[in-house]
Amino acid sequence: MPRNLTTRFWEAITAAVTDEQFLLLLTLSHPNLIDPIRVCSDFTDVTSNSIVYTGYPFGIVLPSSQDDIPRAQLTIQNVDSRIGEVLRGIYAPISVTIACVLRDDPDEEIFSYNFLKLRNVNGDALTIQGTLSMTDYSVIPYGRNIIKQQLLPGLYK
Questions:
Q1: At 7, is the secondary structure helix, strand, or coil?
Q2: Using CA atoms, how far apart are residues 51 and 130, in angstroms rounded to an integer?
């Protein structure tokens, strides 16, 4: 999928040295959560489009090229134990949105990923870890219950 990235972003990302600071904004949402959990990859809080993202540093380990289904590893520092308790208490996949912004202009989203799910959440007193993945459409059954003579009699004449 092509992305329309700004000239400012391309100059900063390809420069040997730059003053631009890139931030990742992470939103975790689930029907069991009253409000989504919003964290920023920095130590300080950031307001983007009137939404406050709390400064909880986190890291993402990208999937290797040898994985069958791309899976990334998300690690959030467990600065507030309530986040760890809430995330470990949810057993269904948690919806994740990751957006990249510049510190100088946090309202302009450079790119985002809206289709990720957080699974296999565990942690300790220091960190919360989970697996980020997308829906694997290759294992979803399709077609078996759709084409039947009762539903489409014209196909069977």
A1: helix
A2: 24
CA distance 62 to 124: 22
Pairing of strands 46-48, 37-40: unpaired
Q: What is the pLDDT of residues 16-40, one digit of tens each?
A: 787 888 889 999 998 888 889 898 9
Quick check: 153 and 93 in contact, CB under 8 A?
no
- How far is residue 41 CA from its own chain's centroid? 13
pLDDT band of 141, cuts 50, 70, 90: low
Cα separation, 132 vs 113, whole angstroms: 11
DSSP per-residue letters across 58-80: EEEEPPPTT-SS-EEEEEEE-SS
Match 């308790």 to its residue by tokens.
85
pLDDT tens, 125-139? 788 888 888 766 666
Domain limits of the chain? 7-156
User: Distance between CA 125 and CA 26 in Å, rounded?
Assistant: 21
